[in-house]
Design goal:
The protein has about 550 residues and is an alpha/beta fold. It is about 25% helix and about 25% strand. The protein is elongated and about 100 Å long.
Length: about 550
C-alpha cells in the first residue's frame, strides 16, 4: 500500500492500464520540435518520459516532430540529440522523425476524406477565423463542409501534386463547429507549404499540422502513454479523435502534467533567440541561460538535474521552483566528487622574508577533504605567494582573523605566517604583503604549540597557471521580474564579471575542458569547454560555495 501511495498520478494510471490488460509493455517518447535549443523545462519532460519507461522496463523513443519546415534546422536536431544523450536518456530504435511517417499520414488523411470525416476548404484565413466563433459563441459551418467526397479527394490529391499556392486550400477535419472546445471546431489537418524540409527535402508541398501528426506518430510507434504538459489538455479530445478515426487497434493514451517554471530565468525560445541575435548572450549555450547546452557548459552535471527533477516531482498544477534549488542540487552532487583546488581571483603578493629564496618544497594536500578515496596531491610552496586581496587589511575590524600587521595565520596545507608589513603604490593601494614563517608549524608535523584563528589559501608565484575566471549572476534583474510590459527582458547589468590574470594550482594541467572543481573558500567552477585553449584557461563559476537556501519540509 505504501508503494502505491508513493507513486505519482501518471504511474497510478499506468498501473491500472497494465492491470486491465490495456497495454502489455510501456512505451514513452520525447517529441521535440527542432526549432531551437532545449531548456530546463524540456529536461523534466525527457527525464519523466525516460524514467517512466525505465521504471516499467519499457522503451523510450526520441522523435522529432518536424512538421513545420519554416522554423526547423539540422543545428537544432544535433543539439537536441546531444542534450538527450548527455542527460543519460537511452532511446531505442535510433533517432526518429515525424517526417518519416508522412506517407502514412497522407494515406490516413485520404481515409478520413473517404469516411466523410475530412474535407478540403478554400476559406481565407480571415473567413476561417470569423466562422470559427468565440469561446462564448459557437462557430458556423464552412460552405465547403459538405463538399462531395470525390471532389475533396481530387482537390487534396492536387494539393499534394503542387497545383495550389501556399494558403489557397487546407484539409479540415469534420467534427463539430458548435463544440465548446475550440480545438474540435473542424481543425486544419493539412496546409499547402512549398518549403524545403530538413529531412525530406522537396518531396512534399503539403504538411500535416502538429495536432494531426502527433497522435499518428505515437500510434505508429506503439507508444502507450503520451506524456505532455498541461497546455495540451484541451487538445486531448482531438488526439483521441484522430487515433480513433484512423482506426488504430490499440491507440496511445495522452496524459498531461504540469510544466516546471523556474524563478527569474528565461525559457521562451523567441526571447532566447532575440538575446542571441542581439549579441546580449554568447549563443544558445551562454552559461547565464538555462538551456541544457548552457547548463552543461556552465558545469552542471546530469546527476544534479536528475536530483532537481526528483525533488520537484510531478503534479497536475503549475508552480514555480526557486533557482536556488538547482544550485543546491549541483552543490550536493559536486561536494563529494569535485577536486578542491586553491585559486586566487584578486591577487596580491605575499613575500615570506625568512624563507630561503631558491627553495621549493612540496606540501601534501587531500584532493577532497570529504572523500579520502580521491587521494592526495603535492602542492609546491615557495618564498613568494599570491593571496586574495581581501585576506589582508591595514585597519581590520573586530573579529577579522586574516592577515594584518602583527597577526599570525595558517597558510592552508603549509605553515603559520605572521604578517610583518606591507608595501603600497603612490595611490595607497597595497601591492605586497610581508611576513615570516615558523618552520616548526608545517602542516602534518603534529605541531600543537599554539593555535591560530585564521586560515587562508595561496598560490606559489612561480608554480601556477594564469587563468580567466567568469563570475555569473542571474541574467535577469530579479527585483524587476523577467519581462517588461513591452516584452523586453529586464537584464541584470552585472550578470557577467570577467576577471583576468587569476592564478590557480598547476594540478589542473591534468584536467580537461568541462571538468569541475571546488575553489576552496570560494565556490564551484568548471573549465569552460568552448573558449578554453591550450594557452588560455577559462573557468566558469557554477555557483557560490554557500547559500541560505534550505530544502522545503515535506
Amino acid at each position: 500500500m505504501e508503494e502505491t501511495n508513493s507513486k505519482n498520478f501518471i504511474e497510478r494510471i499506468i498501473d491500472q492500464d497494465l492491470a486491465d490488460g490495456t497495454y502489455t509493455k510501456v512505451v514513452t517518447r520525447f517529441p521535440p520540435e527542432p526549432n531551437g535549443y532545449l531548456h530546463i523545462g524540456h529536461a523534466k519532460s525527457i527525464l519523466l518520459n525516460y524514467g517512466t519507461a525505465q521504471k516499467y522496463h519499457g522503451d523510450f523513443h526520441l522523435r522529432f516532430d518536424d512538421t513545420n519546415p519554416t522554423k526547423e534546422d539540422t543545428e537544432y536536431v544535433d543539439s537536441i540529440v546531444k542534450d538527450v544523450e548527455w542527460l543519460g536518456a537511452k532511446y531505442v530504435g535510433g533517432v526518429r522523425f515525424a517526417s518519416n511517417y508522412f506517407d502514412q499520414m497522407y494515406e490516413i488523411a485520404e481515409k478520413l476524406i473517404q469516411k466523410g470525416k475530412a474535407y478540403v476548404d478554400d476559406l481565407t484565413p480571415e473567413q476561417m477565423r470569423e466562422y470559427r466563433g468565440t469561446l462564448t459563441e459557437p462557430g458556423k459551418e464552412s460552405p465547403n463542409r459538405n463538399r462531395p467526397i470525390e471532389e475533396s479527394l481530387d482537390l487534396f490529391r492536387r494539393m499534394k501534386a503542387g497545383e495550389f499556392e501556399d494558403g489557397a486550400l487546407v484539409l479540415r477535419a469534420k467534427i463539430d463547429m458548435t463544440s465548446p472546445n475550440m480545438n474540435m471546431r473542424d481543425p486544419i489537418l493539412y496546409r499547402v507549404a512549398h518549403q524545403h524540409h530538413q529531412n525530406t527535402g522537396d518531396k512534399w508541398c503539403i504538411y500535416p499540422m502538429y495536432d494531426f501528426a502527433h497522435p499518428i506518430e505515437d500510434a505508429i510507434e506503439g507508444v502507450t502513454h503520451s506524456l505532455c504538459t498541461l497546455e495540451f489538455e484541451d487538445h486531448r479530445p482531438l488526439y483521441n479523435w484522430v487515433v480513433r478515426e484512423a482506426e488504430f487497434p490499440n491507440p496511445p493514451k495522452q496524459i498531461e502534467f504540469a510544466k516546471m517554471y523556474v524563478t527569474n530565468v528565461i525559457t521562451g525560445k523567441r526571447y532566447i533567440k532575440r538575446l542571441v541575435e542581439q549579441g546580449v548572450v554568447d549563443g544558445w549555450d551562454d552559461p547565464r541561460l538555462v538551456t541544457i547546452a548552457a547548463l552543461r557548459r556552465r558545469g552542471f552535471t546530469p546527476e544534479s538535474l536528475h536530483k532537481f527533477m526528483e525533488i520537484t516531482g510531478v503534479s497536475k498544477s503549475n508552480s514555480s521552483v526557486d533557482y536556488a534549488l538547482l544550485e543546491y542540487c549541483i552543490r550536493d552532487d559536486l561536494k563529494p566528487k569535485a577536486p578542491r583546488i586553491m585559486a586566487v581571483l584578486d591577487p596580491i603578493k605575499l613575500i615570506i622574508d625568512n624563507y630561503p629564496e631558491d627553495q621549493v618544497e612540496y606540501m601534501d594536500a587531500k584532493v577532497n577533504v570529504e572523500n579520502p578515496d580521491l587521494g592526495m596531491k603535492k602542492i609546491p610552496f615557495e618564498r613568494e605567494l599570491y593571496i586574495e586581496r581581501n585576506d589582508f587589511m591595514i585597519d581590520p575590524p573586530k573579529k577579522y582573523y586574516r592577515m594584518f600587521v602583527g597577526n599570525e595565520v595558517r597558510l592552508m596545507n603549509a605553515y603559520f605566517v605572521r604578517c610583518s608589513g606591507y608595501e603600497t603604490d603612490e595611490d595607497g593601494n597595497v601591492t605586497v604583503v610581508h611576513g615570516t614563517y615558523d618552520p616548526e608549524t608545517r602542516n602534518g608535523s603534529g605541531f600543537k604549540g599554539r593555535k591560530v584563528k585564521g586560515t587562508i589559501h595561496w598560490i606559489p608565484v612561480h608554480h601556477c597557471i594564469d587563468a580567466e575566471v567568469r563570475l555569473y549572476e542571474n541574467l535577469v534583474d530579479e527585483e524587476k521580474g523577467v519581462y517588461n510590459e513591452d516584452g523586453s527582458v529586464n537584464l541584470n547589468p552585472h550578470s557577467l564579471t570577467i576577471k583576468e590574470h587569476c592564478f590557480v594550482e598547476e594540478t589542473v594541467r591534468a584536467n580537461k575542458p568541462g571538468d569541475q572543481f571546488q575553489f576552496v573558500r570560494n565556490g564551484y567552477y568548471n573549465i569552460d569547454p568552448k573558449d578554453t585553449t591550450d594557452d588560455h584557461l577559462v573557468f566558469n563559476r557554477i555557483c557560490e560555495l554557500k547559500s541560505s537556501f534550505k530544502l522545503p519540509k515535506k
